[in-house]
Design brief:
By secondary structure, the protein is an all-alpha fold. The chain has one domain (about 40-205). The chain contains six helices and no strands. The protein has helices at about 40-50, 70-80, 100-110, 125-135, 155-170, 190-205. It starts with about 35 loop residues before the first helix and ends in an 8-residue tail after the last helix.
Length: about 210
């Protein structure tokens, strides 16, 4: 498993698809991503690193719902998790022949997702669920209080702290100035941006940009 060392500062801040995975660095093949945007940079970099894949050889489908299986694969690749000879988590709907079995098993083995009777790999994943997975996967410092101006925080304090954590690290700014939309499905484009932003901070060392 890839270990991420988190560097913090005390300074305050003023402000279902077909896997098309590259075997080596190549130009970004997706025609449905607008150039000269953060999303284009994100998809291009992550695709060339083998972290994400398109829905066809020429499309990424950024507005399509991300499945729980895709989410597991993308996150396991980004974290460089060991996926060989991982203990079977025992999900009835994720047999060992499932295309995302290894990634899902790796996340379970590392405590990023909970073991249980089923995983629902073809179902969509919610933004609040992804906030927890990213926080646990990258070992982000969990927020201790809520300072975001969101009016749609959940009634679960732990879930809200995961959401606040992504805000503190600049991984997301929400769906509007006052909403996070915790129960809205994560889109493939959003997932690419989440991972791209976190990995950029990993390369430079993590720095909290929010103060509670």
């Amino acid at each position: 498993m890839q270990k991420y060392a988190l560097a913090f500062t005390t300074a305050f801040v003023v402000a279902p698809c077909i896997a098309v995975i590259p075997t080596q660095a190549t130009s970004m093949p997706f025609s449905d991503i607008k150039k000269e945007t953060e999303l284009y940079n994100a998809v291009s970099e992550l695709y060339n690193k083998g972290i994400i894949f398109g829905t066809t050889s020429t499309t990424y489908s950024p507005y399509q719902q991300l499945t729980r299986g895709e989410a597991a694969y993308f996150l396991a690749q980004a974290l460089q998790l060991q996926t060989d000879n991982v203990d079977n988590p025992g999900y009835s709907d994720v047999p060992t022949a499932h295309p995302y079995y290894e990634a899902i098993a790796a996340l379970a083995a590392n405590g990023i997702i909970q073991k249980g009777s089923s995983y629902h790999p073809e179902a969509s994943i919610k933004r609040s669920q992804m906030a927890k997975m990213l926080t646990l996967g990258f070992h982000l410092q969990l927020a201790t209080s809520l300072s975001a101006p969101f009016t749609d925080f959940t009634k679960d304090m732990e879930t809200d702290r995961y959401i606040q954590t992504l805000l503190n690290y600049g991984v997301t700014t929400g769906t509007s100035a006052t909403t996070f939309s915790p129960y809205t499905d994560v889109r493939r484009g959003q997932m690419a941006l989440f991972l791209y932003r976190i990995l950029q901070k990993t390369d430079d060392g993590f720095y909290i940009i929010g103060v509670e």
